[in-house]
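Supplementary Text 2. Reproducibility record for the structural model of the 486-residue chain.

All settings were left at their defaults, and a single model was retained for analysis rather than an ensemble. We include the record here because the model underlies the residue-level annotations in Supplementary Table 4.
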Amino acid sequence: MLDRLFAAQRQSQPTHSGARLIAPGTEAFALRALSARAAVRCLDLQYYIWHSDATGRYLAHEVLRAADRGVRVRVLIDDMDARSRDAVLMALDQHPLVDIRVFNPFTVRSGILLTARELLLRGSRLNHRMHNKAWIADGRIALVGGRNIGDEYFAASKQVNFVDLDVLLAGPAVAQATHIFDRYWNSESAVPITRLRRTRRDRQSLEEVRGLLGAAAWTQESSEYVRRLRETPQLHDLIDRHYELVWSDGVEVIADDPRKALKRRPEDIDPGVLQSISSAFERARCDLRLISPYFVPGAGGAAQLKRKAGDGCVVAVLTNSLAATDVAAVHGGYAKYRRPLLEAGVQLFELKPAPEEDEGKEGEERRSPRLRLGSSRASLHTKAAIVDRERVFVGSFNLDPRSATLNCEMGVWIADAAVAQQMQEMFAFGATPQHSFVLSLDERGRLRWTESVARQAIVHRRDPHASWARRCVTWLLRHLPIESQL
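Retained model, structure tokens:
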């Protein structure tokens, strides 16, 4: 099926890559589940986080079923999340067609004191993580972007859901994503999980895990989430072969050199995502719009944005408000940049934790993907940029020091006016006062936040809808020398 899915579109433009922005969490989940079911040769999966929740177990069940059909499965997962699930991962690795590797693993697999000792001895090395996200099926399609695997990434959580974004790729760009996967898979930092097996006392058999995953998937089939999934218009488009991609010769998948995790000097590793993004920002002529949930530009990044604004370029940033963010420490790092950026003419928008739902029609949602803001609580997780309304970046890279210097990152550039227009509309939708606080300075240079509630403008003089305790913690963290770790 995957070989035939976009065959007609590929034949008309064989040197072009297909791309489609995937904003709805239900669509993102369905694409992963259906591609696992349709795969006949291989699944290459690379993630920072894979939760053992409803959607995480369901996708693991689909991947295991694929292996049972004869599909070769390779899973590369960062150890920041994998360590707590050694038993399950080791059991899955027992399948003859499933290979699991762990990126930059701890040698200690359990125990608080032993872990603390290893962090003291190897903390600098262990601080470098693999933040990449890629789902590649049969070398025919790839999903690259900001989503990990878990309920909050697929609009399945009953508490807080992430506003996130993927790009579905077909054509030559998939080969680029596969090359990146292979490079990480064969890197010094990717360790077969079998090498860690000796350090675990508790074990599970493959059949035990198969039974647990099967039971979880059966339960999920009758859930409210799957009912909503079946009603998703995009899912019917895919099944009915009406699923359209934009085809362009300007699609490029990029990633950091995996040796970045080895604490190599910058001059010893290949240029990566930071260099690509910084270069694109520098070349922006008239319009630069950034979406980053964790926005800590640093002195250099702030200077670049202020310089572009001073040169007449429209510079706008959409990030999380203090009430919406899931990492208050990062917000503390961002807060000190707000006033100087606003003074330089940079526009700032902070996503509200519970945005008002847009009343757009279903037909409009088919034509134009939007930032999905309809959950009872929302937190921005999209990492994207729009340059001059011509080029779009979507990936795992946050505009913060951790992505720049510590974590390995990945993303895709798309040079296409239609995709850029879609992203412009998504940014504009998220930046409205109904969905975000609009930041400005009053006549005395003090920050103010403006929102719209029931079509009435409301102005706040401090971080809105955030508790006193949360504001105090953020203020304290803001004055600690920890920016390089944010």
